[in-house]
Amino acid sequence: MSLAIYEFDAIIVGAGGAGMRASLQLAQSNYNVAVLSKVYPTRSHTVSAQGGISAALGNVDEDKWQWHMYDSVIGSGFLGDQDAIEYMCQNAPPSIIELEHMGLPFSRLESGKIYQRAFGGHTKNFGGDPAHRACAAADRTGHALLHTLYQKNVEAKTNFFNEWYAIDLVRGKDKGISGVIAMCIETGEIAYFKARATVLATGGAGRIFESTTNAYINSGDGNGLALRAGLPLQDMEFWQFHPTGIAGVGCLVTEGCRGEGGYLINKDGERFMERYAPHLKDLACRDVVSRACIIEILEGRGCGPEGDHVLLKLDHLGEDVLKKRLPGICELAEEFADVDPRKEPIPVIPTCHYMMGGIPTNMHGQAITVNEKGEDEIVEGLYAVGECACVSVHGANRLGTNSLLDLVVFGRAAGMSLEKALAAGLDHRDESQADIDAALARINRWDNPNNTEDLIAIRNEMKQVMQTSFGVFRDAEPMAKGLEKLLELQKRLQKARLQDQSKVFNTARIEAFELDNLMATAIATAVLAKERTESRGAHARYDYTERDDQHWLKHSVYFQDGRLGFRPVNFKPKEMKAIEPQPEVE
């Protein structure tokens, strides 16, 4: 097979907010940068983010980045690295102003300043009243952000390879990463993208679950790329379930609804969050609200004929507020739930939303591995940003609106780090031919006529296992059985084939590649969830109900060969005094 070779200073895999912020930084400095995206850039999943992007601007009431940092640490279950959280919160206000100057069309207050709404877990004065910290463009903030960054990248002459799929990383002969093997989905062309640096910005992997707010493209591609290259994933047991996905569909109903004054009710019409979180009520952290919704359903207070959901009440807000602040939610509710939020509540249920774990990195986006001595080592030539990365600013549970902030702050940080590295002489590395051969072998793996397993059946069974055994609540026995089933499915996957080869287009092959990455992500999640014998943030166990700081205040690390490791949590911010673990208060 002839292999085209394309050389660049940097390759960005993924065209979401993080990838395009990193590419913009480099392109504006006249580096030759390419972005590989398996969809057209403005269809990347960042476009689906609704509620806002957090920054302590203080446009509605007093706010400070220190308060934002405190909330992020508390929300993380004290598993977030405080040096990284401090950096993110300090850089939030200038990042918002930078986006405003790029032309992002934020909603406005009457004064002309950027509109800010309340969001779950965000408070004033270190745990006081709710803070108005979420900078919003109505309920389409991610859409506005993604289009703004794409336009700026076009202006900066970034090279886009749209509808190209990254198959495998290529390691250097001696060390580091030398590039990536990718396929053009339209033509089937295979190419080696050789770069002085490779940046993974592939997003999340919510499609391992049966019910998710994630798009079909969120298939954990960065996770699979890293694991097959011998690199680890970190904190994969922590998956955020958003409290309000449309029941039976999974579409996200932004937390901004509750930030505007909406609230959850059960079948008796009771505003039940007042029982679970008396102080913050419906604006408690997402893990708290999600568990409360599930408990209401399990205890028989769910709504509908099957009692399988709760209701989000918005009609009291008035048509003007809904039309101005939540127009997209009104459209989604009418389209997918057949209800008019101006007249009746929306049926909602917790649904998988966000991956807190990912490829471990430092604050500059440089990928980190753990050597045999248990020491951190930077992987030369490899960066990771966005949801596929684990900095870790989200720890065990991400605060709403910190995701978009993560994208722009650390996308920019990785770009700036790469600028310095490239200027200092970071060079191409000679590639490992064995890695290229392995990637090419995978391309035709599903064409073996002796293979009989059905890819779609395997994928559906994997989703069911993850939903039932590794959802909002977890327990030892179901997790053990679930992991056993996943390992069996992984073996079956090795004997799967594409059906009816005469009619197969490249998209079917891409779905097979994606399933490899989803399965690797699911197994990493299962192994680490079973291993962590405590409840912390989004990891809630029936058999270990308490947080265990004595044994589990540490990051967990997983390698595809089965090795496990741990990394310490950073309690050393530069300016603020470290926020020490304290009892949970809801």
Describe it for me?
With 586 residues, this protein is of the alpha/beta class. 34% of the residues lie in helices and 21% in strands. It contains 17 helices and 24 strands. Strands 1, 2, 6, 7, 8, 9, 16 and 17 form an 8-stranded mixed β-sheet that branches. Strands 11-14-13-12 form a 4-stranded antiparallel β-sheet. Helix 6 (221-228) crosses helix 16, helix 14 runs antiparallel to helix 15 (476-493) and helix 14 packs parallel to helix 16. The protein is globular. The mean pLDDT is 94.
What is the topology?
Layout: E1 4-13, H1 17-27, E2 33-37, E3 53-54, H2 65-75, H3 82-90, H4 92-102, E4 116-123, E5 130-135, H5 141-155, E6 159-162, E7 164-171, E8 177-184, E9 190-200, H6 221-228, E10 233-234, E11 239-246, H7 256-259, E12 263-265, H8 273-276, H9 286-298, E13 310-313, H10 319-325, H11 327-337, E14 346-355, E15 359-360, E16 366-370, E17 376-384, E18 389-390, H12 402-423, H13 433-443, E19 453-454, H14 455-469, E20 473-474, H15 476-493, E21 496-497, H16 506-531, E22 540-541, H17 549-552, E23 554-558, E24 564-568
Features:
24 strands; single chain; alpha/beta; 586 residues; 4-stranded antiparallel beta sheet
**Radius of gyration, whole Å:** 23 Å
Count of helical stretches = 17
- Helix percent band: 25-40%
User: Which structural class best describes the helix and strand composition?
Assistant: alpha/beta
Distance N to C terminus: 59 Å
- Low-confidence runs: none
The description of the largest β-sheet is: 8 strands, mixed
What is the structure about, briefly put?
The protein has 586 residues and is of the alpha/beta class.
